[in-house]
Structure formats: structure tokens, C-alpha cells
């Protein structure tokens, strides 16, 4: 049973990645056919991100009431329904409307699955599962590209991914008895239930440091991905085509790094893997600064990708150990929300900053957040170690 459920979770992680990269792949064609400015993609992504942040914040109450299996099935249904709406109603206003369930569904399922895996499976599976997310994020543009050669083809791309999601929904509902048998047995006491509010969670020892580390990590990962190509073109003088290939290697570094981290997790604990990743990220950021050959900068992007690989899964898997199994789902939801805040707002914040300072500021920007991530991560490690000894 445990193996069957794990296979289902791996498939679910692929489905999590599928919708994430669709809009970026299709938008160059979509905005022309919809007769809207190219900048309107930001409106849709902000709506999706807003829904994801909100559902992550309040995911614990929903998951505690319905259970991980039902929340996963309902959330995937919401994303499938939203993508079907993108296909059936190809008008910008309707895309904004269907972006709401797309975002709300993504936040809850992400929080639910990550906490479930942290509680019931080893660290190597957390790394491999996030590697499978990368497979889904890579497959999304590939599926969309098969339909973009024809007018209105992006609609069929969304329809195809929607059908995949709905098939998964059927599988998830059929597997609900298996999910139920694996649900966490420990419940909060009545007093803890009354006090398990967001202000109480923020006040927990080490919570602020943990939230800051998630915020900083996602700021680094998404800012590098969004602005890396521009840095390579404007600062190093590469062609747009060559820069795009190197940015793809950055994402390949994250995906391949998580595959490798799954094996390393069999020999190393989460904290060691996180520190290793942070050290590699730091080396990558420094490589971007070195006034040597452009290949040092190019290597820097790959190093940042490889360094990012074990950090996020490791921090997620550490959550029950840091804060206790009884409260881990509530903390997980807030951590995911802060992660989405970092990935949503820091890349555009850097964009505004670069207009004043120039794109050359990118390595400094990344290193600031890498250092903040290291400091906050070490703070929570120290607090968790002290609580374990007390």
C-alpha cells in the first residue's frame, strides 16, 4: 500500500509542475490572439500567485477537516477545471476569473503533499518528488509547443493538460481509502486547537527564522531564473538564443541536482544537505562577480541551480522535526505562503532596482538573499538543537 501511495504522490508532483510553465510558453501567441498588451500576463500571474498565497496560509484548517487525500483530489480538480476554463473561454477577462481557482488549488495541494511526505517518507523521496515537479514543469512547455503552430493552438494545449489533471483526479478519488490509512494519528489537544492561530504560529520559537529562510530561498531561485538571461545578454554580450540555452541549464541543474540529492540524502541528513547547497549557491554567486572569463559567470548560474536543488526539499522535510508533528501542517502552510511571496514579489522588485542600477547588480542582489538565507537557516538549526536538548 505504501508503495502504491508513493507512486500516486510522484504522479501528483508531476501534475503540480505541469500548469506552472504553461502561461509563459503560450503567452507570446496568446496575447496577440486575445488583442491585449504583452504586459497583461503579469495580471494573470499575480491573480494566480495571490490565490496560492491565500490558500497556503489557510490550508491547515482545510486539511485538518478533510484530510490530505481529499484536499489533494479537490485541489487538482480545481486546477483541471481552471485549465479547462482557459480552453473553453479564450477571453482575457475569463482567463483572470479562472486564474482564481488555479491559484487557490495550487497552494493547498502543495502544502498538503509536502507535509504528508515530510511526516511519512524519508528525505530522499522529498528530493526526488521535487525533481518530478521539475519534470512536470519541463513537460508543460513541450506539450504546449506541439499545438502552438496553429491559430488557437494554445487552447488545445490547455485542454490537453486539463484532461491529464482530470484523469489524475479520478485516480486520487479512487485512492482515498489508502490516503486515509496513512493520515497522521496524532491530534492537537483542545487547548492547542483553540490557540493554533496564525499569530500563535508566528510567535513560535524559530518560526520567523524559518519563514525568512523560505522567503530568501525562493527570491534567489526565481530571480535567477527570470533575470539570468537578461544578465547574460546585457552584461556579458551573449546572444538571446545562447543566453536562453544557459538559463535552461540552470533549471536542468535544479532538476538533476534534486535527483542526485535523493541519493545523497541516504548518507547525509537534511541539515548537511542544506548547508552543502547553500555553500554551492554562494560559490555560484561569487562566480558571477569574478572579473574573469565569461565562462565563470556561466558556470555561476549552473552552480546556483545545483546549489538550490537540495535546499528547498531539505527545509520542507525538516519542518516536523523543527516544530513537532502535531503543528507541522499549520507551519508548513505558512512556510509555503512565504515561499510564494518571495517568488512573486522579489523578481519584479529586482526589475525595478535594475532600472536604476543596471543589470550588473544581479550578483550582489542574489548574494544578499543567499547570506540572509544562511543566517536564518542557521538560527533555526540552533533553536531546534536547543529545544531537542532541553
From TrEMBL:
It is found in: Cell membrane. One of its GO terms (cellular component) is plasma membrane. Its main location: membrane. It comes from the Bacteria. One of its GO terms (molecular function) is transmembrane transporter activity. Keywords: Membrane, Transmembrane, Transmembrane helix, Transport. The keyword Transmembrane helix applies. Pfam families: MFS_1. The chain crosses the membrane at residues 34-54, 66-86, 92-116, 128-147, 159-179, 209-228, 248-266, 273-290, 296-315, 327-350, 356-375. Residues 5-388 form the Major facilitator superfamily (MFS) profile domain. It is a multi-pass membrane protein. InterPro entries: MFS, MFS_dom, MFS_trans_sf, MFS_Transporter. PANTHER family: BYPASS OF STOP CODON PROTEIN 6 (PTHR23514:SF3). Belongs to the major facilitator superfamily. This is MFS transporter. The lineage of its organism: Bacteria, Bacillati, Bacillota, Clostridia, Lachnospirales.
